[in-house]
Amino acid sequence: MIDTTYALSQNRQSFLLDVSTSSLYYERELSEQDLRIMSVIDEIYTEHPYYGNRRISAELKIRGYPIGRKKARTYMGIMRIVAVYPKKKTSIADKSHKKYPYLLKGVEIVRPNQVRSTDITYIKLP
Question: Residue 97 has what DSSP assignment?
């Protein structure tokens, strides 16, 4: 969209295209090594979603990738993954939302196919 080799400045091009100039940031190219490390981080995160950047960095060192925690944090930021842990005030209900009743309360499950549930399984995509 924005061409840096063009005669018009980037500011003028962004004005003509009605795009904010603050959105014209440098996007780093990822090398094969970066992608390999990110794949290993994805495996670690899939096994242990509660690991933060320090534990993932330590696990990477065990697996032969000498990566510091700041670099691990950078990779996790690119992948948009964060450690799963209890956050503050997660059980406080919003007063404006409707509360739905638990329909299985007091129901004794005694036969197959009486109750159904779902399972969300993670499948790694290329």
Answer: S
* Closest alpha carbon to 77 in 30, 13, 11: 30
pTM for the whole structure: 0.58
**Residue 106 domain-assigned?**
no
Residue-wise pLDDT tens digits, 94-116: 889 888 888 889 999 999 989 88
Give pLDDT tens digits for 37-81: 999 999 999 999 999 999 999 999 999 999 999 999 999 999 999
Residue 94 placed within a domain: no
What is the number of other CB atoms lying within 10 angstroms of the CB of residue 60? 21
Distance (Å) of CA 27 to CA 4, 24, 30, 68, 78: 13, 9, 9, 22, 11
Residue 70, classed as helix, strand or coil, is helix
The residue type found at 67 is I
Strands (DSSP E) contained in 36-95 are none
